[in-house]
Amino acid sequence: MELTTPERTEPGSEVARLYREESPRLWRAIFAYTGNREVTDDAVAEAFAQVIRRGIAVRTPRAWVWRAGFRIAAGELKRRTEIGEMPPDLGIREIEDDRLLPALGRLTPRQRAVIVLRYYAGYRPVEIASILDTAPSTVRVHLLRARRRLAQLLEDNDAT
């Protein structure tokens, strides 16, 4: 999806369509990453506000809002940690498997991000690397470690 100039289409119509199509999935993905509704709401809203402000300067709005949303959320989580706020409660059930969200909460933030972007949002490792501003090889390492840790956590949960 590419934004066009206002002369060719109604202003904001591409962003409105993008919002309708992507915001529910983006919200759920960022929520799975942060576990915090407030941070998630703010990150998604700010990502779309920024794409509106930038207009046609954004060549790939879909990828841009995903990247911006995750970066905004990560920045807010870091800020909250630095000022001593409690970590997010990942016990809220927003994903079908009741065991998955708490297990995701026990991963590192980077592992959680790559798992959500890969298996929920469907991005390839190279795309995840671009979103998270890291190397594709680093994404693959985090995916491997996160899958192993999730398997262990879910297996431990089954044993109890």
Write the layout of secondary structure elements.
Blueprint: H1 13-34, H2 37-54, H3 61-82, H4 100-105, H5 109-120, H6 125-132, H7 136-159
CATH architectural type: Up-down Bundle
Write down the oligomeric state: single chain
Please report the total strand number as a whole number: 0
Unreliable spans are 1-9, 86-95
Strand content: under 5%
What characteristic shape results from the CA principal axes? globular
**H and E string:** HHHHHHH
Q: Number of helical segments?
A: 7
Q: What characterizes the major β-sheet?
A: none
Rg of Cα set: 17 Å
Global mean pLDDT: 80
Can you identify the CATH class? Mainly Alpha
Structural class, from secondary structure content? mainly alpha
The number of domains:
1
How far the N terminus sits from the C terminus, by CA atoms, comes to 47 Å
Helix content: over 70%
What can you tell me about this protein's structure?
This protein is mainly alpha-helical and 160 residues long. The protein has a single domain, classed as Up-down Bundle (Butyryl-CoA Dehydrogenase, subunit A, domain 3). 70% of the residues lie in helices and 0% in strands. It is built from seven helices and no strands. Helix 2 crosses helix 3 and helix 5 packs across helix 7. It is globular, with a radius of gyration of 17 Å. The protein starts with 12 loop residues before the first helix and ends with a helix. The relative contact order is 0.12.
Give short descriptive properties of this protein.
single chain, 160 residues, mainly alpha, Butyryl-CoA Dehydrogenase, subunit A, domain 3
